[in-house]
Amino acid sequence: MIDLRSHFMKRVAFALMLLPGLAAASEGGAMESAQIDLTDKASLQRGAGLYMSYCAGCHSLSYQRYSRMAEDLGLTKEQVESNLIFSEAKIGETMVTGMEAANATIWLGKAPPDLSVIARTKAEGGDWIYNYLKGFYVDESRPMGWNNTVFPGASMPHVLWEMQGMQHALTKPKHKSETGEEEACHQGEYQGACIVGFEIPDAQKGTMDAEQYDRVARDLSAFLTYVGEPAALKRESIGVWVVLFLAFFTFLAYLLKTEYWRDVH
To answer: Strands across the sheet with 189-190, in order?
Structure first.
C-alpha cells in the first residue's frame, strides 16, 4: 500500500529543491512595471485615442462596445463619435475592425488577433503589453524588418516607430559555463549574440523622447488592461463598501453573541 503522506512530503521537498533554480532562471528577465492606474481616466482616454488611431485598423475589441467605453471613461456620445469612431459604426456597436479576416490573411499572411482579453491571457497582464510596445528593434532578417524582445519572431511591424524611433540592438557574444552550457540571454538574442540594450541613431530618432514614449506605451497598456475586464473599475469601488459592510456585520454579530452568552456560565 502506498504511503500517501510520505509520497506527498517527497513531492514537496522536490519542489522546494527547484525553487533556487527557478529564481535564478527568472533573474534578469523580469519585466519593467507599467505602473498602470485604472483610476486614471485621463490615461485611459489617451490610450483609447492611441488604440483607435494605431491599432483598430487591424485589431478588433469584439467584447467591448463604444457605449460602454464612453460610460466608463467619462466620455460623451459626441466625443466618441467625433474622435474615436473612424468608420460607419454606431455608438452601441462592438469595436470591430473593418478589415475582413480573409483579406487580412491574404495581405498579412495571418489575420491579426482580437485584443479584447490580451492583458488577461498574459501572466504579467498589462506589464507584458507595456514591455512588448517598448521591445521592438530593427531586424532586417524578419519579413517586416522588425523583431521584439518580449515576443521574438513577432509578425507585427512596429506601428509606433515614428514616435519611438528605430531601435537597434546592442549585443555581446554568448559565453559558455564550465559545463559547456551557453549563458541565457535575458533580453533576447540577435544574430547569435545576447541583446544587452538598444540605441537609436540620431538620424532615426522618433518624434518623442524616451519619457514621452513610455507614457504612450503605459496609456495603451492601461487601456487594453481596462478592456480585458471593464467591470474591474466598478468592482473595486464596490469592494470597499462590501468590506465595510462585512466589518459592520461582524461587529453586530459579536454584540449578538455577547448578549446570547451573557447568562451562560
So the answer is: 168-172, 193-199, 189-190
Whole-number Cα distances in Å, 97 to 53, 62, 129, 184: 12, 9, 20, 39
Please name the residues in contact with 165: beta carbons below 8 A apart, sequence gap of 6 or more: 200, 204, 205, 206
Lookup: cell for 27: 533573474
Contact (CB, 8 A) for 230 and 64: yes
Amino acid at 194: C
How many Cβ atoms sit within 10 Å of the Cβ of residue 127? 21
pLDDT in tens, 175-205: 877 777 877 888 888 888 888 899 999 999 9
Q: Yes or no: say if 110 and 82 are a contact pair by the CB < 8 Å rule.
A: no
Q: Helix or strand or coil: residue 8?
A: helix
4-43: per-residue pLDDT in tens?
444 434 443 433 333 333 333 333 457 899 999 999 999 9
Return the SS3 of 171.
strand
* Bridge partner list, 138: 146
The residue type at 195: I
pTM equals 0.75
Closest alpha carbon to 84 in 104, 69, 106, 71: 69
| Interatomic CA distance for residues 241 and 252, integer angstroms | 16
What is the SS3 assignment for 93-154? CEECCCCCHHHHHHHHCCCCCCCCCHHHHCCCCHHHHHHHHHCEEECCCCCCCEEECCCCCC
Complete domains list, the chain, with CATH = 34-123+211-252 (1.10.760.10)
- How far apart, in whole angstroms, are the C-alpha atoms of residue 218 and residue 211? 11
CB under 8 Å to 126, separation ≥6 — which residues?
A: 34, 36, 119, 221, 222, 224, 225
